[in-house]
Amino acid sequence: MTRILLVDPNKAESDQLNASLTQRENWHVTRVGSIIEAIREAGENSFDAAILDYDLPDGSGLDILDFLRIGSPGIRIVVLGDQKSEEVAFHALSHGAGDYIVKDKHLDVELPRRMGVLLENTSPEYALVETLMPHAYDTASSIGAPPQEKESAVNACLRELVNGSIIAAGVFDHHGRPIAARLMPDIDADGLGFALATIHGQIGAVWTYGNIKPIGYTMIVDVDGGLLGITAIPGTFLVAMLFETPISRHRALEKLEAGAARITQAMQA
User: Fold this and answer.
1) How far apart are CA 36 and CA 25, in angstroms?
2) pTM for this structure?
3) pLDDT, tens digit, for every residue of 55-103?
4) How many helices (H) and strands (E) does the chain have?
5) Residue 148: how many CB atoms within 10 A of its CB?
6) DSSP 24
7) Strand 2-7 relative to strand 76-81: parallel, antiparallel, unpaired?
């Protein structure tokens, strides 16, 4: 079965495209209408292909290209736009999309045909979507604690960590799915996880495209009201910590590394 994720906020258009796509034998379409819905769906399931509308209520279809490529290796992606745009088309194709199609009256016929071409051709010359596996460069073995025990231990660790200058913290898997989090009410865990997974994928691109093998990373980002620390720990888990000012970047980095070490111990417990 070929699993296709269709991200289109227009129900009438989505209905028409779904009917057209499912005429193909063994093509199954899952429909969502926003970035956040797509993140949640792709976080739980893998897909063979995705069709992304450029204009979405909470952003652009281009915003989730890297996220989809991380979660579904080898995925074929088509971006749909309302008008011809060399800039949008270039951005889509250079970030892993296999095709960019301008929506017109022939879309319900043209889309299945061009998607079929992408799905049928698997050689490097034709498969335009590059596989970006964030855990490929992680030589550490996955941490084997059962999920419920892992979540409980990490939650306990975060409760101890979040105090003083550390005002929020979260742990996510490499898809960006929350494992444990102690966040402020205005921070969306799914959105933060998506952002971390996207950054993680871009770090992996250093190896994919630059032939330089990353073995780890730690970064401090200036944000409104403080600093955001981001790192990865063995087993390809992603850690974020939000620091309230005043705190120096050096001190925030020390706290991030120490906190990540404690989280690693908690996950191994």
Assistant:
1) 29
2) 0.52
3) 999 888 888 887 888 777 788 999 998 877 777 777 777 677 888 888 8
4) 8, 12
5) 8
6) S
7) unpaired
Q: For residue 120, how far is the Cα from the chain centroid? A: 25
Q: Can you give the three-state secondary structure of 195-239, one letter per residue?
A: HHHHHHHHHHHHHHHHCCCCCCCEEEEEECCEEEEEEEECCCEEE
Distances (CA, A) of 91 to 79, 177, 225: 10, 26, 32
Q: What is the identity of the amino acid at 173?
A: D
**Tokens representing 110?**
């043209």
C-alpha dihedral (179, 184, 189, 194), degrees to nearest 10: -120
Give Dmax over CA atoms of the chain in angstroms: 60
Q: Which domains does the chain have, with CATH numbers?
A: 2-120 (3.40.50.2300), 147-268 (3.30.450.30)
- Token pair recorded at residue 170: 């979260």
Q: Which residues of 123-139 are buried (b: 16+ CB within 10 A; e: fewer)?
A: eeeeeebeebbbbebbe
* CB-based contact 58:36 (threshold 8 Å): yes
